[in-house]
Amino acid sequence: MSHPFERSGRSLHSGRHATVRVSPAPAGHGIVFRRRLKDGRAVDVPADWRLRESQPLSSAVRREGVLVRTIEHLMASLSALRIDNVLAEIDADELPIFDGSATPWCEAIRAAGRSEQTLPCRVIRLLRTVAVENGRRRLQIEPGDGLHISGHLALAHFGSVDWSGAITPEGFEREIAPARSFGRYLRAMAGRAYGFVRGTDFLQGVSPRSAALLVRGHVLGGMRVPDEPVRHRILDLIGDLALAGHPIEGRISAFHTGHELNHALVAALMSDSSAWELV
């Protein structure tokens, strides 16, 4: 990245306002979140699969007791637009959700510009197939050039929705980034009410402005791209894969995947050094 940028907005789960400043970092730095705490301290939390913590409907990392969550849309945008080294400073525990898509992050990254660094980018190249599954959910990656993802999802009143394609910077911005977080309208509103009553940070920022809300076989306000739900699952998957620390090359088949299965695949892959090589 050539220049820093700053973005602010409301967060999905806490409903609170957050400001993120994303700055270029030296080669080899990786993607690191710096959480500014109320007591004046700053704690760095690397975007590392080993620091991942399970959180409802989002991806999160925690270090030294400090949590940074809902990182998947920024992570996906940085990864797809091939930005390797940044420092992302945040004044809250959760990144903004904006409209539920990754387009605002992509626009900010494009405006900031891209600079090549002296060290070459190393990628994870698959040597054999790795797969994880949980009931009807299955996620596998096999050797292949570049990153190619085929996603499948079946939703009541919508039927089967599918998308398949190579993940390139231009294709990501056009085909994947506009797809918003989604959920059933009644369930989302019930979740928001539950979080409010219990005083927990759960879906307090959800609304038709921050997500694609489904009512039977329709999306309130319409879909932004065809088969928007499966494209958003692929968006989340790209962001979760980025916690591996290097770009991954391979062909991925994703059936009803979500954050938990995505992270299970990353953990299975990274824990088995015989399945890949760093080149």
Automatic annotation (TrEMBL):
Single GO molecular function: metal ion binding
* Entry keywords, A to Z: Hydrolase, Lipid A biosynthesis, Lipid biosynthesis, Lipid metabolism, Metal-binding, Zinc
Q: Where is the signal peptide?
A: none
Q: Pfam families in the record, alphabetically? A: LpxC
Catalyses: a UDP-3-O-[(3R)-3-hydroxyacyl]-N-acetyl-alpha-D-glucosamine + H2O = a UDP-3-O-[(3R)-3-hydroxyacyl]-alpha-D-glucosamine + acetate
Top EC class of this enzyme: hydrolase
Assigned EC number: 3.5.1.108
Instruction: Please list the GO biological process terms of this entry.
Output: lipid A biosynthetic process
Q: InterPro entries from the xrefs?
A: Ribosomal_Su5_D2-typ_SF (IPR020568), UDP-acyl_GlcNac_deAcase (IPR004463), UDP-acyl_GlcNac_deAcase_C (IPR011334), UDP-acyl_N-AcGlcN_deAcase_N (IPR015870)
Specify where the region named Disordered lies, as residue ranges: 1-21
Q: Which top-rank group of organisms is this from?
A: Bacteria
The cofactor named in the record is: Zn(2+)
- Which pathway does it serve? Glycolipid biosynthesis; lipid IV(A) biosynthesis; lipid IV(A) from (3R)-3-hydroxytetradecanoyl-[acyl-carrier-protein] and UDP-N-acetyl-alpha-D-glucosamine: step 2/6
Provide GO CC annotations from the record: membrane
Q: Does the keyword Transferase apply?
A: no
Please explain the role this protein plays, according to its UniProt record. Catalyzes the hydrolysis of UDP-3-O-myristoyl-N-acetylglucosamine to form UDP-3-O-myristoylglucosamine and acetate, the committed step in lipid A biosynthesis.
Q: What is this protein called?
A: UDP-3-O-acyl-N-acetylglucosamine deacetylase
Q: Which organism's genome codes for this protein?
A: Methylobacterium phyllosphaerae
